Amino acid sequence: MARILNLETATTNCSVSIGVNGELVSLVEENTANYSHAEQLHLFIKEALKKASLSFLDIDAIAVSKGPGSYTGLRIGVSAAKGLSFSLDKPLIAVPTLESLAHQIEIPTGDFIVPVLDARRMEVYSCVFDVNYKEIRATDAEIITEESFADYATKGNVHLVGNGAEKCMEQLGTDKFSYHTEKVPSAAQMAHLSFIKYKQQQFEDVAYFEPYYLKDFVLQTKKKKA
Predict the structure, then answer these.
(1) In the predicted model, is pLDDT for residue 219 greater than 90?
(2) What is the pTM of this model?
């Protein structure tokens, strides 16, 4: 039996789940714009364990959403996951944030899923999956234009999922594109994905693992008055 603790902190959603053999048995999450991860994450972990009637000693692995996403959110989640993995001597599993986001919807055969997370200005983090959730275009940071995802739109309908979908709507229209702007990455979908990696023993080196930021962190500072 594989009991996996899953942590998702890549966006505004602070989310914790427990998966048992790939099945979701416990979920605690809160999506707030003020990023309450630092205050809430460890409380949510304890609550998720309690709801699943498990203790830390019962856990077989720790899984974390590895990004891309918020620099601060990812740091909080990965730091917690690495700390638990080291202290409990349990394997660490990394789940791509956009992959778990893609699993939030089901689509007809021939269509495409494009999970999109908001980056700066008109930029998004995105990748492309087919109906079987097979990645057919790798994750990238890109500026949205009228030509974005045009190759896929000629073959089927394109479903944009995540908080980056809203900024795509004005550029892409609704002819071949559907928008699921309310979806956020959640530890719920991680239960299945982390179990697959557990069975395949796709574990990370706790000492060297880092979040997948995709872009360098840019510190925003106020301009000094002249």
Answers:
(1) no
(2) 0.92
